Amino acid sequence: METGGNFNMYEDEKPDPIALGEQRGLLSDYAFVRKQAMQSLFETLDTSSEGTVVVDSDARIVWINRSYAERFGFTNPEAVIGLDCEVVIPNSLMREVVTTGRPILLDILETGQEPLVVTRLPIKDSHGKTVGAVGFALFDELKVLTPMFSTYSRLQSELLATRQSLAQARRAKYSFSSFVGTSAASLETKRLGRRAAQLDSPVLLLGETGTGKELLAHAIHGASPRADKPLVSVNVAAIPDALLEVEFFGAAAGAYTGADRKGRTGKFELAQGGTLFLDEIGDMPLPLQGKLLRALQEREFEPIGSNRVVQTDVRIIAATSADLPALVAQGRFRADLYYRLNVLMIRVPPLRDRPSDIEAMSYAILDRLSSQRDAGHLELDEGAIKRLMAYHWPGNVRELQNTLERVALLSESERIDALALARFIDDGRGSTSEAGAQNVAKVADVTEAMPTEPVVEWKRYDDAMKAFERQFLTESLRAAGGRVSEAAARLGMGRATLYKKMTLLGIDLLAPE
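That's the Sigma-54 dependent transcription regulator sequence above. Prediction below.
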């Protein structure tokens, strides 16, 4: 078939595209244009980019321009011919392009200097087989990428700050030195805690509320080989039952109505490699106990609404103020979960069982409060210390801290005596336990046995007047047989006024009216 022009084209013949292009002198033939464009594109990118590299089907370098070789420390480009691309260009993904045959059109390559914007393209033969790949480092020649670099730098900074913040938030906040006390009970608790830190078995902390179970959990994690990994805490009692499973194991995107479209990561995944602290585990609902037991035994779980099996490496520390054996007997706590958790049990003693620690603990609390308020140092006189030791502290360390914090805020003097302290203990009732009274008696016996020198104790005028008024009102109440109305009438004051003074001065009722 003849066509317009100086040559004939037949169906079974294909003319040379370059010759065709030259004969016509026009860029009107697709094959010719394509070949010329590819050649021009390569030359342009090689000239204007920061570097060019070509690899073979095994990702070995077959050509690299001088500027790119020098960027990675090679003055002679020929020295890198035949080397694996990763040896010359760390973090290179050229091997991925050769393996998959798919281009990576725009990427950021991290180097020891500034990051590079790169493009990677496969090289294929006439049969479509990948025989190599070519990569270009497009750096500052492409000014339009400046906004992308700015965004990238900002996101990198924000990501780093967020990671540091999360890492700090999920690290141990307390150590064994934070567990103040040198009594036999305190030393034994810390000894068991240090022993637990060296093991990887579950730990069960039992003790009344406010005894310092969470502090001990932090100390165990901080002294363990997992200390540089996350410490994630879950208060079982503070989370509604319906949300606990999601909180523990997470959920896939759209797993339930109202679920996050991106899904939710559970605490088990967040604690990966570290420690998961389960506070008040005695409040965990029975249905969830079974899934928790399986996660502990099999070291795997499935997020809600997902078929994905997540492998977990987490150390468990559980704590409760409840009587777990009693809950097991009542069928409210699974026996198999109890035995799984109760590998190493530590009973945290209540404050009333370690009265000799109260003075040191009180001063540690007062010092912390003084530094927080940037105020003067508060001191406790001997009477105040005895008063603290005589009280039974049902709220334990938490109640002691609350009491001393109120004293620090409302006390008019930096020296706190028993009278000033009395109105803050047990809401002004200042009741003492039998054990507390015995503790004070022991301290008194030791004090009396010690040689003493005459000491003149000076009091402020206000303190002396309060002491006198307290003694006067106490004797008046005793004379009236503890009847407040009768004592108020004899003193010539209203009953409400007398009640108010009794509260302010820490005077207990001698007997009910």
